[in-house]
Amino acid sequence: MIKVGDTLPDVRLFEFIDEATEGCAVGPSAFSVRKRAAGKRVVIFGLPGAFTPTCSARHLPGYIDAAADLFAVGVDEIWCVSVNDAFVMNAWGRQQATAGKIKMIADGSAHFSHALGLEQDLTARGMGIRSHRYAMVVDDGVVATLNVEAPGEFQVSDAESIMAVLR
């Protein structure tokens, strides 16, 4: 499992782009995790799935509510990463009103979750391979803080826990 002091894995993730710009069409857009995190302070929180109960009622909304405070203490970007495709992450982001606050990032094939060592097999529950619930602070691509939840828990990966580390 990734740990504090490790560099983020160099995998590709996807973000849905709603508006076409020069060189960037509407639709899923791939990016290199290391390149995107370079020179930035990023909060990345991972969760089992879009539209799932705890993720939709508590985890994502907590970061939406705390976004301005996180930006005020020097966070450049906040990424919500889930093992869903970019279309699902975009729809969930629209439903939760994340625009301008949270980047809704798709790890559709669980490559990022696997590279972090934070994947979990929820096949028996009909969900396939998913991510554990976690939150990390990353400075210039290096993990500065990592909070991983015990199975079924939601106590250390919430926005308040990350704000406490950054204050």
UniProtKB/TrEMBL annotation:
One of its GO terms (cellular component) is cytoplasm. It catalyses: a hydroperoxide + 2 glutathione = an alcohol + glutathione disulfide + H2O. Pfam families: Redoxin (PF08534). PROSITE patterns: THIOREDOXIN_2. Gene3D superfamilies: Glutaredoxin. It comes from the Bacteria. InterPro entries: PRX5-like, Redoxin, Thioredoxin-like_sf, Thioredoxin_domain. Residues 2-167 form the Thioredoxin domain. The active site is at residue 55. Keywords: Antioxidant, Oxidoreductase, Peroxidase, Redox-active center. One of its GO terms (biological process) is cell redox homeostasis. Its EC number is 1.11.1.27. GO terms for molecular function: thioredoxin peroxidase activity. Thiol-specific peroxidase that catalyzes the reduction of hydrogen peroxide and organic hydroperoxides to water and alcohols, respectively. Plays a role in cell protection against oxidative stress by detoxifying peroxides. Belongs to the peroxiredoxin family. Prx5 subfamily. This is Glutathione-dependent peroxiredoxin.
